Inverse folding.
C-alpha cells in the first residue's frame, strides 16, 4: 500500500466548516487590501484601540517567557474576582474558581469536551456554539425563540422543550447574555424566573457574558447572581476591552461544579498549557478596573449605543423589524417587508439577499439562516454597527465629555463608514426594490 | 430535582489528570516562593531570556488588537517556511500549508480531535501525547523501545507492532525528534529506513520537532525530508527561542494531507480563533532567523550541551545508565544500579525513589513509570539540566565567544544550581545507598 490518505478525517466531520464570521472577515479583509471599497457590517470586532495603560503594561512584560500556572497567574485570577465584585456585585468569588485561557471560546469548547450530557441552545444563537457541540459529539436541542419575546428564552419555552424531548439526565444550557446576534439582554425579573426553572431541573448554565460591559447604560444583570450554584460565568477581554486579538478569556465555576472545573483544567494542561504570559500580566491592568479604565469603557459603549440606535431607527423607518439593542455591536433585523419584491427577483433566502446586496452595493451583512440556527427562508441578517474608525470616534467622545449626549450628527461625522453603509443599503434596496 | 450535579463528567474522564510536568512545576514554584531551597531537575523550561530583538518587536506591536487570520498572519507563515528552508533545507513549503496556534500542543490536540484512526506512540514518550489521545477517544498502541536502540523506533519494531495488533486502516505515528524525554535524535540513515516502512503502510507521521534547533551541533535531521507526503511537521518557539510562555506553535502539512489541515483550521476557528496578535507579529523577528538570532541560538544550545554532557558523565561515574543526549534539556537515566540498596529501604518503584530524593535532599526529578509509558518498577527518571540562571550563563558564553569551548568549570560557575543538584543527588545517594 502506498500513500492512501483518503478518509483520514472523522466521518462526521466531512463537511465541517470554519467559523463563518471569521471566514467572511478574512474574505473582506483581502478585498479591502486589494483596494476595494466595502461596507463591512458583517463582523463584530471592536473598532476601538486598546486602553493605553494596558498596551504599556504589555510592553513592560514583553520578556515574560515562563509557562504560567495552567489556570492563570494568581494576581490575574484575583483581579477577575474583584472585577466581578465591582461590576456584578458577585461577592464571594475565589481565585481558585477561575480558569483563564486563550479566549473564552476555547474554554467553552473544553467544557463541552469534558461534559457528559445534552446541550440546549437557543435560536437565533452565536455561530460557534453548535459547531463546537458537533466537534465534541454532543446531542443538541435547539429552542426557537421569537422576536415578540425579543429573542429571549422563557421558562415556558424551556419547560416545553424538556417535556417534548427525550433528553439525557445531564443538560447544559448555553445562554448568551447580552446576546450575540440580537443585542438583547435579560432583566433581573426574567433571570429570577429562569433560575427557578433551571434549578428545578438541575440544568447547568454556561452564561456567556462577553458583551456584559458593553451594556449601553451599564445595567447588565448576570444569572450567576440568581442561580449561583449552577452557573458557569464566561467572559473575556475581546469586547469591552477591544482586545479580541490578544486572546484572553476566563470562566468562573461555582464550587458545586468543581469536578467540571478540574477536568477543564486538566484538559487545558494538555492543550493550550496557559494563556500567553505577557498578555496575562497586561490583563491585570484592565481587570483592576480603575476610574480611567471605566471611563474608557463608558465612552466606547455610548458610541456603540449612538450608532446602534441610529441604525435601528433607519431600518425601522423602511419597515424592517428589529429589536432595539441594549448592548454590544449587533442587531438582527428581519427584512420580511421585502419578501414580495425580492421574490420577483428570484430571491427567496437570506443568503441570496445578502449576496445580492454585496454584489450590487458592496455592503456586507451576515445572512441569518442556518449559521444562526434560523430557517433559511427567513430574511434575518446579523448587522454589526462597528465599521468605523474607533480611535477617531473615541477621541471625539472624550473631547465632548461624558455629560454631553452623542447626537446623530456625531454618528454621521465619526461613525461614517457604518452611517454610509446603512445609507447605501437603503438606496440600493430602494432602487432594486421599489416597495421600500 | 434540585442541584444534582453529580456525574456531569464524561465517565471515561473520571480520573483524568492534569499534565504531570506542569503540576510538578507549579508545586515547586510555590515551595520556592515560600522560601524553600529546591534543586529543580524536573521541568524542561528554557532558562534563557528571549532574544532581545523579539521582545522589542512585541513591544512595538503591543497595540495589535484585531482577530487575525485563523492560521496565522501571512508574513508569519512565510517566515516559518523560509526558516525551514534555511534550517532543514525544506525547499518547497508554501505558507498555505502552515497552521499557527497558541502552542504546538494545542495543534497536536486538534489534529487528534479530527483524525479518524489509531495512534502509535513510543515508550518512553512525552507525558502529554497519551492524555491527548484519551481526551480525543483514540485507541493507542504503545511501542516499547530499548535503551540499546537509544530509545529509537526501528523499522523492525514498527513492523512487529503492525503484525501483532489488529489496527484501524488509518494510523498516526507521533514521533518526537529530538526526543523528550531521552534527548535522542535520529540520523539521516535511520530516517530513510523508517520512511520506507511508513510509506509502505501509509502511516501518517506527526513529527514533533520542538527541540530541533537545540541540537547541540546544529545537525538536526527531519523526517519531512525523506517522507514529505506523509509527515506533518510540528514545532514552535517554546524551546530554542525560550518563549514557552508566549504560546506560539505551528504545524506544516503536506499537500497530500490537505483534508486534515482544513479540518484542523476549521476546528481552530471554533476554539482558539488565532494565536495572540502581538505575539504573532513579534514572532516574525525570530523566524527571520538573522545572524544575530542564530548566534543567540548557538550560545543557548552549546550551554545546554555543556551541562548535559557534564550531568551524563557524573551519572555514569556512579554506574547509572544513560544515553548521551544530542539535543535539548533532557536525559532519561536509569538507576537500576541502586535496585538492591533501594529495595532494602522498601523502595521498589521510580516514584518512591523520586519521592525519597525530594524529601531527603530537595532534589526534584520526574519519575519515569506510567507518565512516560514505562513500567513502574523501572528506575528511569527524567532529568532536566536547566535549573540555572540562563541570563547569567548566556552573557558569560557570549563574552567567551563561540570559538572558545565551554569547560566543566563553566558549568560549575554558571550552571551552578544544576551542578549542585547533581552533586547533592550523589551525596544523598552515597549516604543512603552505600553501594554508590
Amino acid at each position: 500500500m502506498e500513500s492512501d490518505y483518503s478518509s483520514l478525517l472523522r466521518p462526521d466531520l466531512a463537511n465541517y466548516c470554519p467559523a463563518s464570521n471569521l471566514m467572511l472577515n478574512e474574505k473582506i479583509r483581502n478585498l479591502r487590501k486589494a483596494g476595494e471599497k466595502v461596507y463591512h457590517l458583517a463582523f463584530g470586532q471592536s473598532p476601538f484601540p486598546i486602553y493605553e495603560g494596558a498596551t504599556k503594561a504589555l510592553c513592560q512584560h514583553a520578556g515574560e517567557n515562563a509557562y504560567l500556572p495552567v489556570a492563570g497567574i494568581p494576581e490575574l485570577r484575583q483581579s477577575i474576582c474583584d472585577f466581578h465584585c465591582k461590576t456584578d456585585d458577585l461577592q464571594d468569588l475565589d481565585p481558585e474558581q477561575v480558569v483563564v485561557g486563550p479566549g473564552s471560546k476555547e474554554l467553552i469548547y473544553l467544557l463541552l469536551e469534558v461534559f457528559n450530557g445534552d446541550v440546549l441552545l437557543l435560536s437565533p444563537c452565536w455561530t460557534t456554539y453548535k459547531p463546537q457541540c458537533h466537534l465534541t459529539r454532543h446531542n443538541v436541542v435547539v429552542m426557537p425563540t421569537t422576536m415578540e419575546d425579543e429573542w429571549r428564552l422563557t421558562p415556558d419555552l424551556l419547560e416545553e422543550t424538556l417535556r417534548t424531548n427525550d433528553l439525557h439526565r445531564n443538560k447544559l444550557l448555553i445562554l448568551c447574555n447580552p446576546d450575540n446576534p440580537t443585542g438583547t439582554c435579560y432583566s433581573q425579573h426574567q433571570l429570577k424566573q429562569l433560575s427557578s426553572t433551571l434549578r428545578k431541573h438541575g440544568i447547568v448554565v454556561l452564561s456567556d457574558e462577553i458583551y456584559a460591559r458593553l451594556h449601553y447604560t451599564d445595567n447588565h444583570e448576570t444569572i450567576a447572581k440568581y442561580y449561583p450554584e449552577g452557573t458557569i460565568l464566561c467572559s473575556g477581554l475581546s469586547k469591552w476591552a477591544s482586545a479580541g486579538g490578544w486572546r484572553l478569556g476566563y470562566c468562573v465555576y461555582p464550587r458545586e461544579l468543581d469536578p467540571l472545573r478540574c477536568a477543564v483544567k486538566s484538559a487545558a494542561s494538555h492543550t493550550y498549557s496557559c494563556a500567553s504570559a505577557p498578555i496575562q500580566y497586561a490583563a491585570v491592568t484592565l481587570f483592576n478596573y480603575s476610574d480611567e479604565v471605566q471611563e474608557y469603557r463608558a465612552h466606547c459603549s455610548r458610541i456603540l449605543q449612538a450608532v446602534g440606535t441610529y441604525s435601528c431607527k433607519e431600518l425601522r423607518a423602511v419597515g424592517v423589524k428589529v429589536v432595539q439593542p441594549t448592548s454590544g455591536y449587533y442587531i438582527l433585523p428581519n427584512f420580511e417587508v421585502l419578501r414580495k419584491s425580492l421574490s420577483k427577483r428570484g430571491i427567496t433566502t437570506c443568503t441570496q439577499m445578502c449576496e445580492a446586496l454585496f454584489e450590487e452595493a458592496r455592503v456586507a451583512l451576515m445572512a441569518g439562516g442556518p449559521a444562526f440556527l434560523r430557517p433559511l427562508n427567513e430574511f434575518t441578517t446579523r448587522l454589526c454597527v462597528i465599521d468605523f474608525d474607533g480611535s477617531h470616534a473615541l477621541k471625539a467622545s472624550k473631547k465632548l465629555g461624558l455629560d454631553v449626549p452623542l447626537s446623530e450628527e456625531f454618528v454621521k461625522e465619526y461613525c461614517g463608514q457604518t452611517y454610509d453603509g446603512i445609507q447605501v443599503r437603503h438606496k440600493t434596496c430602494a432602487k432594486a426594490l421599489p416597495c421600500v
